[in-house]
Structure formats: C-alpha cells, structure tokens
Design goal:
The protein is an alpha/beta fold and 196 residues long. The chain has a single domain (4-95, 102-190), classed as Dihydrofolate Reductase, subunit A (3-Layer(aba) Sandwich), CATH 3.40.430.10. The protein has 4 helices and 12 strands; from the N terminus they run E-E-E-E-H-E-H-E-E-H-E-H-E-E-E-E. The strands form 3 sheets. The protein has an 8-stranded mixed β-sheet, with helices on both faces. A two-stranded antiparallel sheet has the order 2-10. A two-stranded antiparallel ribbon has the order 3-4. The longest helix has 13 residues, at 47-59. The two termini are 26 Å apart. Residues 88-174 form the Bacterial bifunctional deaminase-reductase C-terminal domain. GO terms for molecular function: 5-amino-6-(5-phosphoribosylamino)uracil reductase activity.
C-alpha cells in the first residue's frame, strides 16, 4: 500500500488561497522556470524544482479533493490534473448533471469512504490529499503519512488554511527534505506517530 501525502503550495503564513479562493502568487513558481514539468509545456519550473517535483508526481496514483475544489476547477473538464489516473471527490452531493460517467472521477460521501476508494484505486502508488478542509480532516483523523508544502514567499494575512479547521496540536518529524527552488521552498515532513 502506498503512502498518503497531504500537499499544496502555501503562503508563509499558512494559507492555500485568499478569502475569495484566489491563489495569488502561490503557483507562480510553476511558470517561472525553463524546464517543462509536464507534456503540456504550460508548466515550467526551475531545474531544482523539476528534480524535486517530477519524481513525486510520477508516484501519485490518486488525488483526493473536496467538492469545493472540484467546483472551482470545473472538474478539470473531466481530465485529472498533472497526468494523475484518478480523482476522488469528497462530497455530499451527486456528480454534476451531465457529468461523463466514464471520466476517472469518483464521488464519495465522507473522508473514510474517500480514503478507502483512493487506496483501492492507487494500489501501491501514492494517495495525494489536497490541503485545505478535506486534507485537514484527514490529517486530524490520523490518515496522513507525509506533509509536503511548496512554501511561497508571500503573506496573505487571512484566507483558506493549509490544514483547514484543525484546532489541536499535531507533531511532525523534522523536515527530511528542504529544497530551495526559484521563489519557492519545497518541504517534506513525516507525520509523527508519537503522542503530542
């Protein structure tokens, strides 16, 4: 079974978007380099960011997102982002009317059902969980093995928190990866299983 990784670009003060769901400069590092990160050619990063990010992307089998993110992105028009095989959407609502049932998107109710479906689909590959409310719920429930952050040098002051509504202390191990890219700091932490 693959590991479960919570991931997003994040502001220095811990936000994945502003109050209006706008990412501001959080994804600028994905277009400020000269090395294509995927086949589209629209995502270009520094060599350092490529060497860190591409191997991780290649390990992802499934991404779990909340319905809010799915709606904001218009469901990526039925094509999972970054070449990922499947997306599991945590929602209390059915798939959108007219949604192609053959699209590799799976609509489930609750984080436990989402994790079970994602693990089934991912096999021994990584299950990625988008940071924010759903990611925070999974983190608080002890379902996350690793936290990855692409920290961008901006302060939002308020907005959508990386860990959602987590309101209790949780320990992470010391970062086992710290990579400085161009206008981004890539961090990777293992989630501590020690009592906080």
């Amino acid at each position: 079974m693959g590991k479960v990784v919570m991931y997003s670009s994040v502001s220095v003060d811990g936000f994945v978007a502003d109050e209006n769901d706008q990412p501001g400069p959080l994804f600028d590092w994905l277009t400020n380099g000269e090395v294509p990160l995927d086949e589209s050619g629209g995502i270009t990063v520094s060599r350092t960011s490529y060497d860190y990010t591409r191997p991780y992307w290649d390990q992802i089998g499934v991404t779990i997102v909340g319905r809010h993110v799915f709606d904001l992105t218009d469901g990526w028009e039925g094509k999972p982002p970054g070449g990922i095989d499947h997306v599991v959407v945590v929602t209390h609502r059915p798939s959108p009317e007219g949604w192609d049932p053959q699209a590799p998107f799976h609509f489930v109710d609750g984080i436990e059902a989402a994790m079970a479906k994602a693990r089934e689909l991912a096999g021994d590959r990584v299950v990625e969980v988008a940071a924010g409310d759903v990611g925070g719920q999974m983190f608080a429930a002890g379902l996350i093995d690793e936290v990855r952050m692409d920290v961008v040098p901006v302060v939002f002051g308020s907005g959508k928190r990386y860990f959602g509504s987590v309101d209790a202390q949780h320990l992470l191990e010391d970062p086992d990866v710290v990579v400085q890219g161009d206008r981004v700091l890539h961090l990777r932490y293992q989630v501590s299983r020690r009592p906080g």
